[in-house]
């Protein structure tokens, strides 16, 4: 939802209006990053409510699904938002499609390569308890997210409107 808002911002030249308001560019960028976490959390809550209604009882997501969903949303948001601020909107659909395809193709190949040449790394992660594995995943995603947030602020502050 947050990423879709960029399309409408560009389509209606909303950036001109937003920059005329008493908000800094840093606050505008930060709102997009906070929006990803808010919308992902809201989606999970709505999913649990609807599932509870349809199933006739309380349905709670496992904490692993919650952590994985947040980490995945943060990872993709961290990839896309700096690209959106840096590039023109016309190129983004092609770039995003390319990223999805490359990700789908490369991740299994990279994992096979690591498994073949560095099996101890795979064994290390395999023997980690779930709580540590998901904590590590969330930590890596948060670090990547924060670095991307800073980069996006820098890109948008330097951007000519």
Query: What is the count of helical runs?
Result: 7
- Tell me roughly what share of residues is in helical segments: over 70%
Distance between the termini: 23 Å
Shape: globular
Give the class from helix and strand content and strand pairing: mainly alpha
Beta-strand segment tally: 0
Describe what you observe in this structure:
- The protein has 161 residues and is mainly α.
- The protein has helices at 2-11, 14-20, 25-55, 63-86, 89-117, 119-126, 130-158.
- The protein has one domain (2-158).
- The longest helix is centred in the first third of the chain and has 31 residues, at 25-55.
- It is globular, with a radius of gyration of 19 Å.
- The two termini are 23 Å apart.
- The mean pLDDT is 87.
- InterPro entries: ABC2_memb-like (IPR025699).
- This is Permease.
């Amino acid at each position: 939802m947050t990423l879709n808002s960029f399309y409408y911002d560009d389509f209606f030249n909303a950036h001109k209006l937003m920059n005329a308001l008493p908000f800094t560019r840093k606050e505008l960028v930060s709102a997009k990053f906070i929006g990803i976490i808010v919308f992902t959390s809201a989606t999970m809550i709505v999913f649990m409510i609807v599932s509870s209604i349809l199933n006739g009882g309380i349905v709670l997501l496992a904490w692993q699904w919650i952590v994985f969903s947040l980490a995945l949303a943060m990872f993709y948001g961290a990839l896309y938002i700096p690209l959106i601020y840096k590039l023109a909107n016309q190129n983004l659909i092609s770039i995003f499609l390319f990223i999805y395809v490359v990700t789908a193709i490369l991740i299994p190949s990279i994992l096979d390569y690591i498994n073949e040449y560095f099996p101890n790394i795979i064994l290390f992660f395999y023997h980690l308890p779930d709580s540590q594995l998901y904590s590590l995943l969330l930590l890596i995603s948060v670090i990547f997210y924060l670095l991307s947030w800073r980069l996006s602020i820098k890109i948008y502050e330097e951007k000519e409107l």
